[in-house]
């Protein structure tokens, strides 16, 4: 339970050395793990770990302590009495002490829980790895514990894989300043290079020193390290569809460039303090790698604002930069003075060339094609246009096979759907683009991951492959919507309702079209196309195209109006613009109608929607109207008989509506007494309508014949006889009566006098004497159809007096009795109502 003695620099150094040697001896002898942990706790009490990225990471602390032990085992330490002890500390003159000829410092903690203790300084602990690289080639001192670092690294390598994976994936990279960003980039790629080269050598050795599973695990670790290095690059200008595959190539190119240039002094790269000072001057912080155009810039937008990345412009130009320096030699460890200042200053010679010229992701030995490619002649491994010959052959063969498979799927689909009815045919068509998209995805995966094609060829392949996948996906979504629509339209509930089924189909087509366009636009965005200008071009620059397709759009809108307003439906018989026919199909662009002569009429929807349409199929009943002319020899009583029988027939007929019908003596024709018939047939089918009308007309003919009259035909009757002239007595009587009117100032011209009108009002027998209405025995069974609101005015005024202008009262009574003596008859169509105050 005794803690480490840190009361003075001498005690701190002695505690560190004693406890590290005791811990190393305990490990070598397989001692008690609890005692070993006690030694480790005492050792950690001698250092100030506040300068580490994660001060509480015990694994990192242990690695730093072993670095310190390795350094102390190789350098000469001063005598113990030369190191400040308790006496010197008591004098108050000692606050820090540095080991001679080194930068290892022990200082006093001024505040906090450990105030007054002497610890290895935070700066010293943070730079122990750099200090170790300066002395690692020196020999150990006699009695030192040799190989402690190698043992620790081996133990760390064999730690739990799952725990290490969690730690690597969750531990973030430090991009808070350019110095840490550059360090992270170099460290991760160097570690990945070591893993890949060791694993490749292990698989190639005879016998192999690694199993395939172990190699796969190492490849996964290397991929994780490269992914951490990739996160130091600003890839915002790369299309999302190719970003993941191109990013590794970009990171390796950057590493090749940095490995051929000298490392600048670590102090010249802005650290956290320098970044804070630069931010105070205003604007984002930028740092350029000396003698290059490589820049590290501060991000100003997005969720990573304030972090640093290798600039997007640097990433875009890495191909050009690499071609400029690939002929230069790699940097050596003794060529630059500042190498030891970096955490990981090593180079990774040939890493990029190894990556682009071997199959698989990183380690060729785990690829399924590696055995075949290894046995190929050397001529197949030569590089042509940045790819080996076997890679070009693989691209050609893979593309040819994929194209044949796509054509085969298309042919089989067309052959199958030709013999299937909807909706099954639509579901088969859905699988065609899905299978073709899968084929393209596998082809791209083969070229990218297995053949490991890189460079501009990979850009083209990824771009074309991604575009094809999104086009197939758009087709699949469209086909899915159509298949669902056809399935719903084919259900028994909608199968008999053609209009609703057609509306479902139209909605499915429209939804599928919109969804497909959305997928295509998203695909363009993934390929790096700027969608906003594209949409703006469709809105403004595409105005000419919109005007060109205006008729088509009008027809589509007209079709939607027909579906929404429903003036007609499939199967309806209608009349439009002087033509008639049965509606066969309402499409997106036009409506097709089968005419009576069996010709097909195609009308654009925009025109058809604006027409006056008469839909005969919507009739609840159909009007039968005609005028029957009877001979002038027909007597009034015969006329009454015919009218009564015809009305009885209409009431009795089961297919004639009883509520509204007219059978009326309507006028005196040129050669006939006209009877107007207007009744409704209880049907909305034309064939039945014609049958009912035919039956009604035949029965009317029988009734007319049974009444002793007949239908008139255009004729003129000439009466030849002796003319006796006019009756003088009647002439004298009429003239005498008119003279009496004149003498009494009662001449009914130009208006009928009010006393006369009041005296003769309602004196005629109407209804005629003998009718049920006249006898007061009327049973209402007939309802007259009112034509307009004027009829109501007539009913309100039916009790007011009336006079026929120009005809005397006695002549009005006798007019009908002498109608046969006239060749032309004055038809009285109405009555003239005379206000009472107008008789003056």
Model description:
By secondary structure, this protein is α+β, with helices and mostly antiparallel strands. The chain folds into 6 domains: 9-159, no CATH class; 163-375, no CATH class; 387-527, no CATH class; 552-617, SH3 type barrels (Roll); 618-706, Alpha-Beta Plaits; 728-838, no CATH class. 51% of the residues lie in helices and 9% in strands. The protein is built from 32 helices and 18 strands. The strands form 6 sheets. Strands 12-11-10-9-13 form a 5-stranded antiparallel beta sheet. Strand 1 (96-98) and strand 2 (105-108) form a beta hairpin. Helix 3 (58-72) runs parallel beside helix 6 and helix 10 packs across helix 11. It is elongated and about 180 Å long. It starts with 8 loop residues before the first helix and ends in a 7-residue tail after the last strand. 27% of the residues are buried. Residues 157-167 and 779-840 have low confidence and may be disordered.
Structural features:
840 residues, alpha+beta, 6 domains, 5-stranded antiparallel β-sheet, 32 helices, 9% strand, disordered C terminus
């Amino acid at each position: 339970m005794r803690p480490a003695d840190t009361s003075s620099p001498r005690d701190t150094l002695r505690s560190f050395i004693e406890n590290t040697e005791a811990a190393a001896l305990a490990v070598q002898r397989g001692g008690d793990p609890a005692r070993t942990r006690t030694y480790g706790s005492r050792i950690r009490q001698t250092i100030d770990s506040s300068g580490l990225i994660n001060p509480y990471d015990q694994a990192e602390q242990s690695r730093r302590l072993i670095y310190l032990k390795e350094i102390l085992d190789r350098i000469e330490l001063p005598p113990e009495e030369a190191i400040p002890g308790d006496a010197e500390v008591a004098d108050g003159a000692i606050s820090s002490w540095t080991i001679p000829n080194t930068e290892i410092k022990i200082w006093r903690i001024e505040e906090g829980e450990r105030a007054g203790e002497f610890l290895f300084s935070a700066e010293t602990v943070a730079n122990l790895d750099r200090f170790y690289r300066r002395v690692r080639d020196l020999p150990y001192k006699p009695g030192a514990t040799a190989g402690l670092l190698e043992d620790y690294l081996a133990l760390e390598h064999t730690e739990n894989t799952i725990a290490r994976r969690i730690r690597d994936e969750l531990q973030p990279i430090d991009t808070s300043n350019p110095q840490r960003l550059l360090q992270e980039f170099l460290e991760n790629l160097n570690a990945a290079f070591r893993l890949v080269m060791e694993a490749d050598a292990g698989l190639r050795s005879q016998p192999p020193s690694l199993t395939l599973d172990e190699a796969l695990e190492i490849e996964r670790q290397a991929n994780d390290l490269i992914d951490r290095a990739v996160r130091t690059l600003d890839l915002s200008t790369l299309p999302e569809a190719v970003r993941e595959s191109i990013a590794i190539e970009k990171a390796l190119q950057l590493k090749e460039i940095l490995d051929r240039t000298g490392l600048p002094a670590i102090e010249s790269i802005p650290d956290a303090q320098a970044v804070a000072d630069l931010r105070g001057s205003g604007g984002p912080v930028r740092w350029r790698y000396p003698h290059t155009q490589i820049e590290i810039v501060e991000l100003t937008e997005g969720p990573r604002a304030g972090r640093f990345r290798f600039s997007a412009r640097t990433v875009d130009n890495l191909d050009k930069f690499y071609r400029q320096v690939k002929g230069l030699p790699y940097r050596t460890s003794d060529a630059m003075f500042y190498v030891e200042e970096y955490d990981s200053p090593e180079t990774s010679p040939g890493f990029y060339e190894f990556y682009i010229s071997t199959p698989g992701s990183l380690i060729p030995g785990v690829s399924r094609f590696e055995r075949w490619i290894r046995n190929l002649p050397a001529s197949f491994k030569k590089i042509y246009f940045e790819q080996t010959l076997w890679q070009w052959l693989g691209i050609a063969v893979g593309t040819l096979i994929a194209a044949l498979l796509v054509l085969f799927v298309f042919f089989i689909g067309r052959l199958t759907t030709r013999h299937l009815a909807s909706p099954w045919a639509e579901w088969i068509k859905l699988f065609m683009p899905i299978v073709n998209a899968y084929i393209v995805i596998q082809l791209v995966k083969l070229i990218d991951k297995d053949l490991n094609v890189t460079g501009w060829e990979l850009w083209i392949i990824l771009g074309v492959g991604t575009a094809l996948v999104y086009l197939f996906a758009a087709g699949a979504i469209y086909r899915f919507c159509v298949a669902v629509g056809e399935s719903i339209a084919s259900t028994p509930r909608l199968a008999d309702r053609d209009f609703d089924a057609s509306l479902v189909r139209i909605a499915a087509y429209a939804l599928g079209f919109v969804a497909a366009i959305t997928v295509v636009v998203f695909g363009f965005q993934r390929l790096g196309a700027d969608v906003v200008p594209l949409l703006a071009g469709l809105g403004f620059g595409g105005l000419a195209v919109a005007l060109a397709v205006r008729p088509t759009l009008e027809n589509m809108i007209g079709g939607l109006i027909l579906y929404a307003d429903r003036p007609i439906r499939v199967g309806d018989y209608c009349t439009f613009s002087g033509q008639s026919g049965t509606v066969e199909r309402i499409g997106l662009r036009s409506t097709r109608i089968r005419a009576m002569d069996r010709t097909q009429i195609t009308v654009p929807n925009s025109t058809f929607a604006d027409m006056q349409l008469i839909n005969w199929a919507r009739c609840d009943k159909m009007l039968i109207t005609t005028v029957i002319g009877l001979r002038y020899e027909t007597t009034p009583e015969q006329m009454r008989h015919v009218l009564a029988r015809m009305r009885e027939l209409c009431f009795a007929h089961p297919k004639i509506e009883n509520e509204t019908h007219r059978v009326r003596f309507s006028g005196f024709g040129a050669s006939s007494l006209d009877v107007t018939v207007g009744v409704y047939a209880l049907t909305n089918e034309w064939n039945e309508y014609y049958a009912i009308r035919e039956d009604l007309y035949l029965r009317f003919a029988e009734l007319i014949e049974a009444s002793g009259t007949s239908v008139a035909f255009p004729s003129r009757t000439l009466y030849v006889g002796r003319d006796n002239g006019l009756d003088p007595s009647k002439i004298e009587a009429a003239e005498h009566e008119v003279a009496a009117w004149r003498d009494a100032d009662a001449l009914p011209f130009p208006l009928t006098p009010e006393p006369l009108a009041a005296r003769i009002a309602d004196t005629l027998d109407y209804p005629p004497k003998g009718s049920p209405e006249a006898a007061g025995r009327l049973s209402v069974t007939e309802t007259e159809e009112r034509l307009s609101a004027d009829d109501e005015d007539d009913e309100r005024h039916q009790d007011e007096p009336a006079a026929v202008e120009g005809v005397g009262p006695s002549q009005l009574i006798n007019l009908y009795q002498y109608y046969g003596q006239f060749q032309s008859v004055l038809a009285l169509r109405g009555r003239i109502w005379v206000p009472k105050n107008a008789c003056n």
